[in-house]
Specification:
mainly alpha, 0% strand
Length: 461
């Protein structure tokens, strides 16, 4: 067997013939009449007749394909135009007009249409079907598309359910995405506010530190000035006491000199000596008085400085009060910042929860997509099983038709026999009726003869 090439090629050719026969049987099962195809296409709003199907026009056929793609996939040349334009610009930036727009859009539309027809069952769709369509190919393609549309209309509830679920998940994802964007923008605003507050707080802290340092310096200077003021007040008291004592002593000396003046000798030498002594004493007293005046002036200047220092101390106390108020405000701001940090943490937790919910929704979406894929696989398996069942039913139908034909033939034979027997029965019935009529006539004749015979017998008696 293996050395004979004809024998080795025979099974493959038989398998190919069987596959072709199966395809032809499925095509014959799926094919629709020309009038039905033309009626369906004209029902959708495109004027089309069986003559147009026999002699197809490429432009009209392309328009019909575009309408089917728009109905089933919401895809036209206009919807494909932006993506194809972007692709052509990305590939041919220097020569954007090298491919015409119509050809470019037709290529994109051809790809989407090929996907649609592949789902419908047409696996050998090509450009030849768009530019040079034939009657046989158009009948096959339109039949498959119309059957797919009918199947889709029969499964509208399931499609609507899945479409509504997809739309709800899509809307939910969009809302979550918008909420995420809003939360991110709010988070960015909070971060910017936090940075601004941190800068403001750092400035306030620096200013607070500077004010604290200045306050410490002012306190130290205040302590120094207070000590100096106390020392100067003590010196002032001492100097005033000394001045009072000296003035009292000078007054007493003047009184004593006035008392002793009449008793003083009138000699010029003694007077000169006393005058010199008195002048010296007076000069010393004047010098002491000038010193006391200077000390009094110094004390006055020190008192003035003390008043200025006290005013500075009062201003420093006011500054301390203001600083305490600002510190209280700063503490309030720190509390607000802490609250804002807590709120920011809560918002961050909310963002995390939103991200978790988004991840959960993504998982649910993937699960739904897996379920839809499983349902598609199940529907495909069911379709395959339905096809197998249809083939089995076709075989059973063929057997039943053959049996029906055989039984019809037998019924026709029996009908012929019954008609023949009915004819025979009718002939026999006619013969019997004729015999009955003849017998009845003979009976009447015999009855009349008997009556005549009886009458004759009675007359004879």
């Amino acid at each position: 067997m293996s050395f004979n090439p004809r024998m080795s090629l025979a099974p493959s050719s038989q398998q190919q013939n069987r596959g072709k026969k199966k395809e032809e049987e499925s095509d014959s099962f799926m094919r629709l009449p020309d009038k039905e195809i033309a009626g369906c296409i004209s029902d959708i709003g495109v004027p089309f007749t069986a003559a147009d199907l026999l002699k197809p026009n490429p432009l009209q056929i392309q328009m019909i394909f575009e309408w089917f793609a728009e109905l089933l996939m919401n895809t036209t040349r206009d919807t494909v135009d932006p993506a194809m334009r972007a692709a052509s610009e990305g590939i041919c930036e220097d020569y954007p007009d090298i491919v015409p727009a119509e050809t470019r859009n037709l290529m994109g539309f051809y790809v989407s249409l090929r996907k649609l027809l592949f789902e419908c069952g047409i696996t050998d769709f090509s450009f030849q079907d768009l530019y040079k369509p034939t009657h046989d190919r158009l009948v096959k393609i339109f039949s498959y598309i119309i059957n797919f549309v009918r199947f889709r209309e029969s499964q509208t509830q399931v499609i609507d359910e899945h479409f509504n679920k997809a739309e709800t998940t899509k809307v939910r994802i969009e809302t979550l995405y918008m909420e995420n964007q809003e939360m991110e923008s709010r988070l960015d605003e909070l971060k910017r506010n936090r940075r601004a507050m941190e800068v403001h707080i750092s400035e306030k802290v620096k200013r607070n530190e500077e004010l604290k340092k200045r306050l410490l310096e002012l306190r130290q200077s205040q302590d120094k000035m207070a000590r100096r003021f106390e020392g100067l007040t003590k010196k002032k008291k001492e100097m005033t006491a000394i001045l009072e004592e000296k003035t009292a002593a000078t007054i007493e000396l003047r009184q004593e000199s006035s008392k002793l003046q009449p008793y003083v000798s009138q000699s010029p030498a003694a007077l000169q000596a006393s005058l010199t002594e008195l002048s010296n004493a007076l000069n010393t007293d004047k010098a002491q008085i000038d010193g006391f005046d200077r000390r009094a002036r110094a004390l006055q200047t020190s008192t003035d400085t003390f008043t200025v220092v006290s005013a500075d101390v009062v201003s420093c106390t006011k500054l301390l009060d203001e600083i305490s108020v600002e510190l209280a405000k700063e503490e309030d701001e720190n509390v607000k910042v802490a609250r804002q940090r807590d709120a920011l943490g809560e918002r961050g937790n909310n963002v995390r929860e939103v991200e978790r919910t988004e991840a959960l929704l993504q998982r649910q979406l993937s699960k739904h997509l897996e379920r839809t894929e499983k349902l598609r696989d199940g529907s495909k398996a069911k379709a395959m099983s339905a096809k197998e069942r249809m083939e089995e039913l076709r075989a059973v139908h063929r057997k039943l038709t053959e049996e029906r034909n055989e039984k019809g033939r037998e019924m026709e034979r029996r009908k012929v026999r019954i008609e023949q027997t009915e004819k025979k029965m009718a002939d026999l019935k006619e013969n019997i009726e004729n015999e009955i009529h003849s017998a009845h006539d003979e009976f009447l004749k015999m009855d009349s003869h008997i009556k005549l015979y009886i009458t004759e017998m009675e007359q004879s008696i």
